[in-house]
Write a structure and sequence with these properties.
This protein is mainly β. Helices cover 4% and strands 65% of the residues.
């Protein structure tokens, strides 16, 4: 089983309401907040080096809750389901890359924040995820992991955090650093992690302009790695697939008085790469794919 170090600018996957809780003010003791998300992403056709082209559509649903505890601490959790629809076309019959179809991902996550004082806190976010093609072995598709770290508020304009994550499963063990940033650089401008649902997930960095009435505009990106188990049909029976690449985007978001947020994205995926592995995690095939346009639409409701 290989071990990999993923150097990422922020967390790869968890519940958005939990992430925001680490950066924001403490939740009042005894109060509970909820959030639901719907996300749709379309990644357009991209030519593969191995021949043919590939496109992806993604549909995801999340629900999370968080409750304030005494002393500024909090506890919460969430449930997330995502369907990844892969389409391979024009793939050569011999030597082509056409290894899987739709992928289902289900994640259960928890989070605990311990307030050291009014400005600093520790957090722990364990999760268990099932990610696999229809008919894949459930035991092969399970991944366990946790993200932990420390955040400190230096002023109203600056909050920073650092930590790490470790995950085990899908014939892979991975670790990566975690960095949180919230920096109000100037009036109407900030640098922060893109905690809103989007094509890169809650990972990466973005520069945000907030000078428009009712709207904000973000320019950012993040690196995303998606790994999953395969069924016993195809070129790698009971094997594993992986898709990774950097999503660069422009975001336009509107907040409603009801507690809802609408997010619109347009962008591209660069540095895309697909991998196919056998049941033991040994590489069988790899292909790069060209930059592809992407569009995304998300709605979040908090109450």
């Amino acid at each position: 089983m290989p071990f990999s170090i993923k150097i990422l600018p922020a967390i790869l996957a968890t519940v958005t309401i939990s992430l925001q809780a680490q950066m924001g003010p403490p939740i009042p003791a005894g109060e509970t907040f909820y959030a639901g998300e719907v996300l749709g992403v379309f990644q357009g056709s991209a030519d593969m080096n191995a021949g043919g082209d590939m496109s992806i559509h993604r549909l995801g649903f999340k629900f999370g809750a968080i409750r304030g505890l005494d002393g500024g601490s909090s506890i919460g959790g969430g449930l997330c389901y995502t369907m990844l629809g892969y389409r391979f076309e024009g793939v050569p019959a011999l030597g082509g890359f056409n290894p899987w179809e739709d992928i289902d991902q289900l994640q259960l996550s928890l989070q605990y924040r311990y307030a050291i004082d009014r400005k600093s806190s520790l957090f722990l976010m364990p999760s268990v995820t099932s990610s696999g093609e229809s008919g894949a072995s459930f035991s092969d598709s399970i991944e366990f992991g946790a993200i932990f770290g420390y955040t400190k508020t230096f002023s109203r304009e600056l909050t920073l955090g650092i930590g790490g994550g470790a995950f085990y499963g899908l014939e892979d063990t991975s670790g990566f650093p975690v960095i949180f940033v919230y920096w109000q650089m100037a009036d109407n401008w900030r640098l922060s992690n893109p905690f809103r649902p989007g094509p890169s997930g809650p990972a990466g960095l973005e520069i945000v302009y907030t000078g428009l009435t009712g709207w904000e505009i973000g320019f950012g990106g993040g690196y995303r790695v998606s790994r999953f188990a395969l069924n016993d049909v195809g070129p790698a029976p009971n094997g594993f697939g992986q898709n990774e690449g950097a999503a660069m985007f422009v975001r336009a978001s509107r907040e409603f008085q009801s507690g809802g947020n609408l997010d619109l994205y347009v962008g591209t995926v660069v540095g895309g790469e697909l991998e196919l592995e056998d049941s033991g995690g040994r590489l069988l095939a790899r292909t790069d794919y060209d930059p592809a346009v992407l569009f995304a639409l998300a709605f979040t409701q908090r109450w």
